[in-house]
Amino acid sequence: MFTGIVEELGEITAVENLGDACRFRLRGPVVTEGTKHGDSIAVNGVCLTVVDHEGDEFTADVMAETLDRSSLGALGVGSRVNLERPTAVGARLGGHIVQGHVDGTGEVLERKPSENWEIIKISLPADLARYVVEKGSITVDGISLTVVDAGPDYFTVSLIPTTLALTTLGLKQPGAPVNLEVDVVAKYVERLLAGSQGAGK
Known about the structure:
Elements: E1 8-17, E2 21-27, E3 40-43, E4 46-54, E5 57-63, H1 64-69, E6 80-84, E7 104-113, E8 118-123, E9 137-140, E10 143-150, E11 154-159, H2 161-166, E12 177-182, H3 184-199
Antiparallel strand pairs: 1-2, 1-6, 2-5, 3-4, 3-6, 4-5, 7-8, 7-12, 8-11, 9-10, 9-12, 10-11
Catalytic activity: 2 6,7-dimethyl-8-(1-D-ribityl)lumazine + H(+) = 5-amino-6-(D-ribitylamino)uracil + riboflavin
Enzyme class: transferase
Organism: Streptomyces canus
């Protein structure tokens, strides 16, 4: 489990095509500290398993399903990525509960800078819109954010200077894809309500 508090802005240093999958090599001095084979690291919000690591780099395999459902397939050598290790038991939950299971992708539609923050508008797939509410939580490229405005096919988030400086959202321009993970609590509530309504018939 992750919290959506990005630890560092890493970089893809190599991409190996494996046919129906690919292998990324990524640089991340912070997240590789103490890392071993089999550990999990969230890459732009996608939970990946460490295959190997050496120095400040690690490798991770990405299956076709993940490439199809996320924006990782659009990345290449030199791409910057958000990196986060799983939260430790007993640690503070600084963001919200993030599984690292991407629900879909959106697209940066526009950016509106102001003096001390920036508003970013992001497209929202129709099948995810019901889980996104004003002042609710959403994960964008692995970043735990609060929804400012929720429309039928978009939402907006407000980014502070720290988020702009230390994550990919400071770099992405209109047209860029982003990974989205909606609040898992909303999905569980929906499933439970559906079950209770069925039981009452």
